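Hi support team,

I've been running sequence recovery on a batch of backbones for a student project. Most finish fine, but this one hangs at about 90% for roughly twenty minutes before it completes. I'm not sure whether the input is malformed or the queue is just slow. I've pasted the structure tokens below so you can try to reproduce it. Let me know if you need the job ID as well.

Thanks,
M.K.
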């Protein structure tokens, strides 16, 4: 079954290294999507130097995309010597991942009067890449306080549509969270805040080991996993070896 997913990755605790790690996760999921033959489209990005990201939001679509990635939501922790570390010390940093199912407009009612939409230039910081037309879209949903944006498309209309896709997914997730709380669980427990102590998975470079703390499984060959070889982890969560 073809499924559409909103993937949101944010740098957590750890400064520049957290942003670099977020970038590593972006590339890991993008390569995994390529291996699975899924569509991949960036919606909103906030890059940093050294190939990092403060925020990266993408839309994925393909056979079993949500079923394969839903367990990725949470705080991912990395332990390694950062590129920016001169004394050779191992640092611990985090990034948060949210995997949200894309929902149809009819499933989430949004009143236009509840939206505050602003436009800006979509380009980067200077140079020829700056977009001289205000195509980037930022939408505030007043009742919830949620802010979403899109800047990768060439027109205001296209970026607004992408931003609305994110908004619908987040509002739908709030509804799911409300239902989950009634059952005694919380979305906060799934995604966390990005603090080092809140983690679902640790990428330990000194020991070349990836540990998922929810199911107690460990895998080696970190570089291979970060190169998009997520199948062993996905299979473990789907009950296969």
């Amino acid at each position: 079954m073809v499924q559409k997913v909103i993937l949101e990755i944010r740098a957590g605790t750890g400064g520049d290294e957290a942003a670099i790690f977020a970038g590593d996760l972006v590339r890991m999921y993008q390569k995994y999507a390529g291996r699975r033959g899924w569509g991949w489209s960036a919606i909103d990005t906030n890059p940093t130097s050294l190939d990092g990201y403060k925020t990266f939001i993408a839309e994925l679509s393909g056979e079993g995309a949500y079923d394969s990635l839903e367990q990725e939501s949470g705080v991912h922790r990395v332990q390694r010597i950062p590129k920016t570390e001169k004394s050779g010390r191992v640092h611990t940093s985090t990034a948060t991942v949210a995997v949200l199912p894309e929902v149809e407009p009819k499933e989430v009612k949004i009143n236009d009067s509840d939206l505050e939409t602003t436009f800006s230039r979509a380009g980067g910081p200077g140079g020829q890449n700056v977009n001289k037309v205000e195509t980037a879209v930022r939408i505030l949903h007043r009742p919830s306080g949620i802010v979403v944006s899109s800047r990768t498309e060439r027109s205001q209309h296209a970026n607004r549509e992408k931003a609305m896709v994110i908004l619908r997914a987040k509002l739908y997730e709030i509804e799911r969270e409300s239902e989950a709380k009634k059952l005694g669980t919380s979305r906060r427990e799934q995604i966390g805040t990005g603090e080092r102590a809140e983690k679902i998975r640790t990428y330990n470079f000194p020991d070349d080991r990836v540990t998922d703390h929810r199911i107690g499984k460990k895998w080696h060959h970190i570089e291979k996993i970060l190169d998009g070889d997520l199948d062993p982890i996905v299979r473990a969560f789907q009950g296969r070896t």
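--
Follow-up from support: It reproduced on our side and the slowdown came from queue contention, not your input. DSSP finds six helices and eleven strands in the chain. No action needed from you.
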